[in-house]
Amino acid sequence: MVLNSIGKRKTAKARATLKEDGEGKLRINKKPLSAWTRTSKLRIQEPIRIAGDLFEQVDISVKVNGGGIQSQAEAVRMSIARALAEYSEGDALRQKFLDYDRHLLVEDYRRTETRKPSQSSKGARHKQQKSYR
Hints:
The chain is α+β, with helices and mostly antiparallel strands. It has a single domain (2-104), classed as Ribosomal Protein S5, domain 2. Helices cover 32% and strands 23% of the residues. It has a five-stranded mixed β-sheet with strand order 1-2-5-3-4. Strand 1 (2-9) and strand 2 form a beta hairpin.
């Protein structure tokens, strides 16, 4: 059995492929988890720790692109959690994820605000400074 799941954070998108009958391997962009920085690695491991023995029965391969390092880590984390929640029978694991952190399963809908016309290129609401003297 093969499951696919998607995780998004800002502009980072991650696609996780979960394969049944594995040994608990995790590959991100064809590299092991040890290639990531320490803080990102800890964030990515959260759903794996919560799932416990369930993770040792499967192999997960994740492809991620876009965004920065932290956004990619959050997207990977979400895609892994969604795949594990779909793979497990019942709602027990899904409820554990929601109790721990809602963003393991639910996407953050916030996006950057678009720049308005006839304003400077510094931001969405940045106005040109005006001098009275």
